[in-house]
TrEMBL record:
The keyword Transmembrane helix does not apply. It comes from Quercus suber (Cork oak). SUPFAM superfamilies: alpha/beta-Hydrolases (SSF53474). Keywords: Cytoplasm, Hydrolase, Nucleus, Plant defense. It is found in: Cytoplasm; Nucleus. GO terms for biological process: defense response; lipid metabolic process. Residues 230-435 form the EDS1 EP domain. This is Senescence-associated carboxylesterase 101. InterPro entries: AB_hydrolase_fold, EDS1_EP, Fungal_lipase-type, SAG101-like.
C-alpha cells in the first residue's frame, strides 16, 4: 500500500482513540515506509491503553513506528486510567507506547518512558464530579486544541528549582510543574512528590541511555566476520588432521579448542540478540530485517550449532532437538524454511563446491549421536525387546536421512574423515549387521555405498545416487 505526500492523521477520542491506534498499527503494517516520505500520525484524546508489555516493547524499540503516536491525556479524564492498577501502576497489564502529552490547567508536558507515564497518569488524575460527564471532559480537550499554539508546553519553573539541583532533575521538576503536580507557591514538596521526581528522573535517564545504545547489528558485523573466520580456520585445521572440527571440539585437547569456546560465545550472544530484536520488530519490518541477515545467520547456525551439540552429548544427555536446542537456532532455521525454494537436484556447481561447504542441516550430528545410542541399545543384552525394535527403526530412518543428504550434496564430506563420529557409527553399525542383528542378509543402499567405499567419490562431486 502506498500513501501520497499529503499528511495522514488518524485521531479519536476515548474508545475511538483505541480504534485509531489499532488502525494506525494496521496501516503501518500495510504501507512501505521505505518508499514514502509521509508517515501516518495517530493523535488520540483520552484513549485507554492498548496492548500489553510485549506490544509496548516491540513498538518502543522501533522508533519509526513509535514516533507515529501522540496520546493527549487531561488530568480530568478518567478513561485513560481505567486499565491502570491504582495500587501499583507498574504492575498494570496494559502498557503505554508512543509519546504522551499530559495536560492540566497549568500547561502540558511530554513523556515517552512507559513506567513514568503509568506513574504520572495515576498521580495527575484530578477527581471531581464533572469528570464523570463525557461532554465536560471533551471540553477540556477542545480548549487544549484551540489554545495549544498560545500555551507553553513546559513552563519556566526556575523559582521551583534550587540552585544546586542537577539539570536533569530540574527538567523533570519543570515538566511536573507544567502538569500541576508541583505548585509554584509550594515551599517544600512532600515525600510522595519527591519520590515521583526521583522515579521519573531515573526512568527518563534509562530511556536516554537506551536510545543511545540501540542494538545496531551492522556496527558489530565486521567483528562477527572475524570470529567466523577463526572458526573457518579451526574447521580447516582439523579437517587436514583427519578428524573434523566437530569431533575435535567434542574431545578438546588443544589451546585452539579453548579459543573456539570464546569465539563461539561471542557469536552466540550476538545472534541471540539479533533474533530477539527481529522477533520484537513489527511483523513487516521484522520480516525485512530477517531476510537481510538470514544468509549470515544461516552460516552461523551451520557452523556453531554442531559445537553446542558436541557439548550437549558430552554431558551424557539425549534428545537435543526436543530437550536442549536453543530457541535462536530454531528461529533461524524456521526463517530459512519460510524463504527457501523447494529442493531440486543438486547443480554441478554445488557438487564441485561440496568439499568447502557446511552441512545444511545444523542438527546432523544430533542424528549421528542418536544413531550411536541406538547401536549401543541394540548391542546391549540389558535392552528390552521394545528398545531393540525401536533402535532398529531409528537406524533405518537414520540411513534414509543420510542417503537423502548425500544425494542432494547437502552434507559436508568431513563426515567421512577416518576419526569422525559418523565413521565410528558406521564401524559399530557394520558390526551389528555382520552379527545379523538387523536381520539375515540385511541390505540397504547406504550400507552398500559404505561397504564399497563409493563415498570416497563424494568430496569431488563424482558420486551419483539413484
Amino acid at each position: 500500500m502506498q500513501i501520497d505526500s499529503k499528511p495522514v492523521i488518524i485521531t479519536g477520542n476515548s474508545l475511538g482513540g483505541s480504534v485509531a491506534s489499532l488502525f494506525t498499527l494496521w496501516l503501518l503494517e500495510k504501507i512501505n515506509l521505505s518508499s514514502t516520505k509521509t508517515r501516518p500520525l495517530c493523535i488520540t484524546f483520552g484513549s485507554p491503553l492498548v496492548g500489553d508489555d510485549g506490544l509496548q516493547e516491540a513498538i518502543s524499540k522501533y522508533p519509526t513506528w513509535n514516533s507515529c503516536f501522540l496520546h493527549v491525556v487531561s488530568d480530568h479524564d478518567p478513561v485513560p486510567r481505567v486499565l491502570i492498577s491504582p495500587v501499583n501502576p507498574i504492575d498494570s497489564i496494559y502498557k503505554p507506547f508512543g509519546t504522551f502529552l499530559l495536560h492540566s490547567e497549568l500547561g502540558c508536558a511530554c513523556f515517552e518512558d512507559s513506567q513514568s507515564i503509568l506513574d504520572l497518569l495515576t498521580a495527575t488524575y484530578s477527581e471531581c464530579p464533572e469528570n464523570q460527564n463525557p461532554n465536560q471532559v471533551l471540553e477540556f480537550y477542545e480548549a487544549l486544541v484551540q489554545h495549544l499554539n498560545h500555551k507553553v508546553i513546559c513552563k519556566d519553573a526556575t523559582q521551583l528549582v534550587k540552585r544546586n539541583t542537577k539539570s536533569f532533575e530540574a527538567g523533570i521538576i519543570t515538566q511536573l510543574e507544567a502538569i500541576g503536580l508541583v505548585r509554584p507557591q509550594q515551599q517544600q514538596r512532600n515525600n510522595g512528590i519527591d519520590n515521583l521526581i526521583t522515579r521519573t528522573e531515573r526512568q527518563e535517564k534509562k530511556l536516554v541511555i537506551l536510545k543511545r545504545h540501540v542494538f545496531d547489528p551492522s556496527k558489530k558485523l565486521n567483528d562477527m566476520k572475524i570470529n567466523m573466520a577463526y572458526l573457518e580456520w579451526y574447521k580447516k585445521h582439523f579437517k587436514d588432521k583427519g578428524i573434523g572440527y566437530y569431533d575435535s571440539y567434542k574431545n578438546p585437547g588443544n589451546l585452539s579448542d579453548l579459543n573456539v569456546v570464546r569465539y563461539k560465545k561471542i557469536l552466540t550472544c550476538y545472534w541471540e540478540e539479533m533474533v530477539d530484536e527481529a522477533e520484537k520488530k513489527p511483523q513487516k519490518e521484522g520480516a525485512s530485517f530477517r531476510t537481510g541477515w538470514l544468509f549470515a545467520g544461516t552460516n552461523y547456525r551451520r557452523m556453531c550449532e554442531p559445537l553446542d551439540i558436541a557439548e550437549y552429548y558430552n554431558k551424557g544427555l539425549k534428545d537435543y532437538i526436543n530437550q536442549g536446542r536453543p530457541k535462536h537456532y530454531k528461529q533461524l532455521e524456521q526463517w530459512l524454511k519460510e524463504t527457501e525454494k523447494p529442493a531440486s537436484n543438486p547443480s554441478q556447481l554445488k557438487k564441485q563446491n561440496v568439499a568447502s561447504s557446511l552441512t545444511e542441516d545444523s542438527c546432523f550430528w544430533v542424528h549421528v549421536e542418536e544413531a550411536r545410542i541406538s547401536c549401543e541399545l541394540l548391542s546391549s543384552r540389558e535392552s528390552s525387546i521394545g528398545e531393540k525394535e525401536s533402535s532398529k527403526h531409528n537406524l533405518v530412518e537414520f540411513e534414509n536421512y543420510v542417503l537423502s543428504l548425500m544425494k542432494n550434496y547437502a552434507v559436508s564430506p568431513e563426515i567421512f574423515l577416518p576419526q569422525s563420529s559418523f565413521m565410528l557409527w558406521w564401524k559399530e553399525y557394520e558390526e551389528i549387521i555382520r552379527k545379523g542383528i538387523m536381520g539375515a542378509a540385511y541390505y540397504s543402499p547406504l550400507t552398500d555405498l559404505m561397504k564399497s567405499r563409493s563415498y570416497q567419490n563424494y568430496a569431488t562431486g563424482g558420486l551419483e545416487i539413484p
